[in-house]
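Hey,
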Amino acid sequence: MRAALWRESPTERRVPALPDYVTKLKALGLEVLIESGTGESVFVSDEAYRSAGAQILANKAQLLTEADILLSLEMPDLSRFPQATGKVLIGHLNAWRYPERLEELSKRGWTVYALEKLPRITRAQSMDVLSSMAALAGYKAVLLAAVEYGRVFPMLTTAAGTLAPAKVLVIGAGVAGLQAIATARRLGARVEAYDVRPAAREQVESLGARFLDLLPDLKAEGTGGYARELTPEEKARQQAALEEAIAQVDILITTAAVPGRPAPKIVTRQALRRMKPGSVVVDLAAETGGNCEDTIPGQTQVIQGITLLAPLNLPSTLPLHASQMLSRNFYEFLRLFSKDGRFTLHTDDEILRATCLLYQGQTLETKQPA
C-alpha cells in the first residue's frame, strides 16, 4: 500500500508526517509518496524526505495515480482529477462542512476516515488531532491578544508607577481554553474562565484562574467531555449573566464549540459594545462561524474601539510543532491497520468504525466490509 502527502492550500502549512515518521510508516508496511515541495512550509526539503525513504513525485496528478491512500488536512476537491477513483482518504477533514465533496468521493468509491470523529476514549488519545491542534490554538490566541492589546499583561511596579495587570476572561474550558488560561497566567494576567460544564471548575482552578459560577443550576455536560447544546431559555440566561462579566474584562477569548455543528453564539452585539475601548476579543470558534454575533471569520474588526479577531486555522501559524503533533496522531491511527507487518484496510476496531465516513463509497450501514 502506498500512502501519499501532497501540497495543500496556501493557507495550510502543516503536514501529516515529517521525515522521522516516514521510517515508522514504512515499518507498518506502507510505501510513502510525497509531492515535491510539500515540506517547504515546515522547512523540510525533498531530500530530507527522500533520505527517510520516501519517493518524491512531481505533481498531484501523478501522486493520485500512484497512491492508494491520501493523508490530508483538508477535504480534497478532486474535480480536476477524474482518474482518482477507489482510493482511501485519511485526515482531519471537517467533512460536515463539505457535503458535496463527500458525495463526490462516494460516487468515486473512496473509503474515508475522518480523524475529527475519533471517540473520546483513552485508547484514542494519542490520535486525537482535535486536542493537539486546540492546544496550539489556545496558546496562539493569547499571543495574538497580547500583540493587539495596547498595554502589558502582567502587573509591573516601576519607578514611574505601578501598572495594573490585564483582566482576561476565557469562555470554554476545553483543551483550547485551558491552554489559553495557562498562557495568559504565564504572561501575568488575572484570569477568569467560564464553562457550562461544572466539572471544568477543578481544571480551571488548578491553573490558577478563577472559575465564574454564573449559573450554578445550569449543567450542560454532553457526551465525550464536550458541552451539549443549550436550550433557547438556557442560552438567554447564560448571555445575560455573561454580559455583566464580559463588561469587566480587558481580554476575552472564546473557545466554545459543539462537534460537527456551527459554533454557539455566546457574545451578543450588545455584550461586545459594553466592553471598554481598547479591549481585545479573540474568537477561536471562527472556523465554525464564531461565538460572537459580530464575528466575520478570517477578519479583524475594530468596533467602537474594541478589537475583534477571528483567526482561521491558527495551528497552521505554528507549522513545525503542529506537524510534529499531527505526525504522531496520524501514525498512531495508521497503526490500527497494521497486521503482522502488513497494512490492511478494515473496520474491525471501534475507533475505525467511529471514524469511517465511507467504505468503498458507501456508509457502513449499507455496506459491511469483508
